[in-house]
Design the sequence.
């Protein structure tokens, strides 16, 4: 494929013993200079992928290529990859300067150049003048920056970040999201970021890989994944979703909750069973007469920007609605939506099949 | 820590008095010009002078210190490497087995260790003397060092080692630049404990000292059997003071090496 590819996984499987498969036949390709996120619940294999790239573990089967060369057997200390660890893994017996200079000292870089590079790295993470601080004197956010500086000072081609923001408080975390994204753009290096936080992934990434049970469920830009989740898992994991069963009557017509609706999906078999996804923010509160669906408001929560309403239709399906308008608990209301907001998911469809189907009917989904 | 009420305080005082009275009794009579441990006549340093005039005793003292320092150094080196190896054994059963074997050596009676060393040295043909004492002291100190170093190793996050390798460190770099600096307090603790164990060991040494070589504890024992002189009191007093200094030294070094970890947050 493209020359720009920096890391490629070909059918990589990782087992810890015969029965525990942590990564099942995973293949993907990463381009140089982009911000990638591996997103999934704990135990989905995202950290395993990171450790495979770093070289801390070896794949059981398959090939890992770095710049087109197989690196399965290359030890971690010879790879042009550096990691920012979840617990930062700063050396407590060394001060900030020595922590950052650790990699340079091992490579026997001359003192003058070493000092210059450490200074540059500190400037990159906005920690000028902190050279002589002890790690124990630094706050969580500062330690985070030192850990990043320690990785970038070695000028790696890829920087791996293993849930680096999970130990920070909410405000600091969103600040660091901006900073990390900005840092990646300034450095122009490939970042691979591991997280279980979907908001973090959506906010920062060029491309997201959604993982579950050791398999890649879906990959794509944040917008693609949010708007076109491939299956129940992705739809549920990324953002909040109303998922109901439905039947695809014919192209552009779908039936759910006993009614037929116009939609923008096609390429399925007539009368095929499907899952329907409508995002809570796409449902508009209206009167029963004007609404396409009639529901009863069960609970209402004030969320600051909007109200979160939990409503039920006559079949007992729950419909979550995000609305700036208030509703009365217990009252019947109508829900309105446009055809573009109905997302049809074929059961057990793979990513390749999904992409092929999109192309076959002109990819109207991409126009959004 | 809450304030202690009266009863526990009294109890503590009582325990310490019982523990320390014999030592101070001994020290007190080391200054007695009377020559016996009954009836204090007048204050004198003559017993201390006698210790320093006795060149044989001084030689034994030097032997004791040399054996203690050497055995502590060697056992610390071996013990630290052993502890690191034990920590990185992946198989849990094997690790626990080795650890149990280590701990058995600590709790097993000195007499048995001494006797078994005597049998071993006779079998192999090692001449009893300096070498046999040194080897046996190194042997019984290693498990102590391992036990002192292990908790520090377990405290260390495994990601520190990953981080070092990630930054290009070889196995050797990881050991010298990350692991050893991190466990330094444990190494010092192990060294000092090995030193004191060697200095005051009697049972093991008693079995493996041959003719012409002796350590203080064995010498004091034989002196006491021959008949009580106050030279023993003076010698014991000196050892007590040296031990006190060692303990203070240990705490001083330990506190110093801990400092960078508990620095005040600004």
Sequence:
């Amino acid at each position: 494929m493209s020359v720009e590819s920096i890391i490629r996984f070909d059918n990589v499987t990782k087992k810890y013993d015969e029965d525990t498969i942590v990564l099942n036949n995973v293949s993907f390709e990463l381009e140089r200079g982009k911000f990638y996120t591996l997103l999934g619940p704990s135990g989905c294999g995202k950290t395993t992928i990171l450790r495979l790239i770093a070289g801390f573990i070896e794949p059981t089967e398959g090939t890992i290529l770095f710049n087109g060369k197989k690196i399965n057997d290359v030890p971690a200390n010879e790879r042009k990859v550096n990691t920012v660890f979840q617990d930062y893994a700063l050396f407590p017996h060394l001060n900030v300067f020595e922590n950052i200079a650790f990699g340079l000292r091992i490579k026997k870089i001359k003192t003058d150049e070493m000092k210059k590079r450490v200074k540059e790295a500190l400037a990159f993470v906005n920690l000028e003048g902190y050279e002589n601080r002890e790690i124990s004197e630094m706050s969580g956010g500062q330690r985070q920056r030192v850990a990043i500086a320690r990785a970038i000072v070695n000028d790696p081609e890829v920087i791996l970040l293993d849930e680096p923001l999970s130990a920070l408080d909410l405000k600091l975390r969103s600040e660091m999201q901006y900073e990390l994204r900005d840092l990646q753009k300034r450095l122009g290096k490939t970042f691979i970021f591991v997280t279980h936080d979907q908001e973090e992934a959506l906010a920062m990434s060029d491309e997201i890989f959604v993982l579950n049970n050791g398999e890649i469920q879906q990959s794509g830009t944040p917008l693609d994944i949010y708007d076109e989740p491939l299956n129940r898992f992705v739809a549920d994991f990324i953002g909040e979703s109303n998922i109901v069963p439905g039947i695809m009557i014919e192209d552009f017509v779908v039936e759910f909750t006993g009614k037929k609706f116009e939609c923008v999906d096609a390429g399925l078999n007539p009368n095929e069973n499907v899952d329907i996804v409508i995002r809570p923010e796409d449902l508009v509160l209206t009167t029963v007469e004007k609404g396409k669906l009639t529901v009863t408001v069960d609970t209402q929560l004030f969320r600051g920007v909007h109200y979160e309403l939990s409503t039920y239709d006559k079949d007992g399906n729950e419909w979550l609605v995000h609305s700036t308008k208030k509703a009365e608990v217990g009252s019947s209301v109508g829900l309105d939506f446009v055809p573009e907001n109905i997302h049809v998911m074929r059961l057990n469809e793979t990513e390749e099949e999904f992409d092929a189907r999109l192309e076959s009917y002109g990819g109207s989904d991409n126009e959004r | 820590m809450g304030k202690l009420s009266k009863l526990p305080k009294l109890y503590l005082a009582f325990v310490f008095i019982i523990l320390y009275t014999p030592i101070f009794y001994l020290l007190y009579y080391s200054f007695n010009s009377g020559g016996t441990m009954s009836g204090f006549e007048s204050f004198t340093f003559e017993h201390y002078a006698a210790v320093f005039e006795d060149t044989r005793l001084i030689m034994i003292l030097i032997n004791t210190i040399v054996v203690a320092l050497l055995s502590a150094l060697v056992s610390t080196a071996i013990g630290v490497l052993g502890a690191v190896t034990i920590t990185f054994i992946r198989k849990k059963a094997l690790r626990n087995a080795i650890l149990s074997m280590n701990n058995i050596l600590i709790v097993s009676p000195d007499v048995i260790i001494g006797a078994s060393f005597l049998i071993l040295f006779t079998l192999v043909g090692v001449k009893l003397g300096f070498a046999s004492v040194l080897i046996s002291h190194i042997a019984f100190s290693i498990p102590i060092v391992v036990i002192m170093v292990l908790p520090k190793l377990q405290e260390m996050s495994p990601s520190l080692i990953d981080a070092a390798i990630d930054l290009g460190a070889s196995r050797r770099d990881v050991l010298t630049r990350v692991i050893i600096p991190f466990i330094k307090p444990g190494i010092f603790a192990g060294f000092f404990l090995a030193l004191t164990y060697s200095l005051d060991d009697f049972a093991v040494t008693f079995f493996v000292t041959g003719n012409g070589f002796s350590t203080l504890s064995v010498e004091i024992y034989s002196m006491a059997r021959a008949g009580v002189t106050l030279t023993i009191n003076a010698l014991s007093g000196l050892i007590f003071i040296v031990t006190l200094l060692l303990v203070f030294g240990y705490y001083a070094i330990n506190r110093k090496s801990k400092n960078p970890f508990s620095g005040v947050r600004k």
Observations:
- Chain A touches chain B through 28 residues (CB under 8 Å).
- Confidence is low (pLDDT under 50) at residues 363-368 of chain A.
